[in-house]
Design a protein that fits this description.
The complex is a heterodimer of chains A (115) and B (111). Chain A is globular, with a radius of gyration of 13 Å. Helices cover 0% and strands 49% of the residues of chain A. In chain A, the strands form two sheets. In chain A, strands 2, 4, 5, 6, 9, 10 and 11 form a seven-stranded mixed beta sheet that branches. A four-stranded antiparallel beta sheet of chain A has the order 1-3-8-7, with no helix packed on it. Chain A has no helices and eleven strands. Helix content of chain B is 0%, strand content 52%. The chains are: A mainly beta (115), B mainly beta (111). The A-B interface holds A 31, 33, 35, 40-45, 48, 50, 55-56, 91, 99-109 and B 4, 30-31, 33, 35, 41-45, 48, 88, 90, 92, 95-104, 106.
Chain lengths: 115, 111
């Protein structure tokens, strides 16, 4: 079963360090999303790609966050100069289609702990 | 502010009792989706509703989309311990291509 995979699953870092997460979506999916989830909350939208184009980025997203999907396949999410408030589960999801967002397939997530 | 709200935040039921979670949007939605997230897991898609007043059933789960397309509900009949988890509704608030998730309802089921 080639679902959405994320790496690493867990990352512990010290405040001020940079971290990078990778997401490999389902191969035929053209859309890729990054969400952030903290304990007891729903997933919060961060950014979204259609193929290699980053079409939307949350206005709440600090400029310390950057995401890429260089060849329209895997994606990376980098957080620079991490802060304790960045501690969360970072979820990647992919979907297929145009127009409306169809079913999102989520990965297992990358849990970030900033000390 | 939060644009998709769910109530209740948490519900604890005895196995066999029914459960309902309600989802309300501040804006009209073109469609609404429901996801289930097991403890320690990731959200898993359950269903998508598109039409005003639509009702869909999946075994013991009944999903409804309101006539005004601003609210939805999920009803579980005769809960089982396997129903434990957090249920999220999600809709395209603002733009069609991104989903905004609700606040979620955590369901606990005990024997």
């Amino acid at each position: 079963d080639t679902g959405v995979s994320q790496d690493p699953r867990h990352k512990i870092t010290k405040r001020g360090q940079n971290v990078t997460f990778r997401c490999d979506p389902i191969s035929e999916h053209n859309r890729l999303y990054w969400y952030r989830q903290t304990l007891g909350q729903g997933p919060e939208f961060l950014t979204y790609f259609q193929n290699e184009a980053q079409l939307e980025k949350s206005r709440l997203l600090s400029d310390r966050f950057s995401a890429e999907r260089p060849k329209g396949s895997f994606s990376t999410l980098e957080i620079q100069r991490t802060e304790q408030g960045d501690s969360a589960m970072y979820l990647c999801a992919s979907s297929l289609g145009q127009g409306w967002t169809g079913e999102l397939f989520f990965g297992e997530g990358s849990r970030l702990t900033v000390l | 502010g939060q644009q998709v709200m769910q109530i209740p935040q948490y519900q604890h039921v005895q196995e066999g009792e029914d459960f309902t979670t309600y989802c309300n949007s501040s804006t009209t939605l073109s469609n609404i989706q429901w996801y289930k997230q097991r403890p320690g897991g990731h959200p898993v898609f359950l269903i998508q509703l598109v039409k005003s007043g639509e009702v869909k059933k999946q075994k013991r789960l009944t999903f409804q989309f309101g006539e005004a397309k601003k609210n939805s509900s999920l009803h579980i009949t005769a809960t089982q311990t396997t129903d434990v988890g957090t249920y999220f509704c999600a809709g395209p608030v603002g733009t069609a291509s991104k989903l905004t998730f609700g606040t979620g309802t955590r369901l606990q089921v005990t024997l």
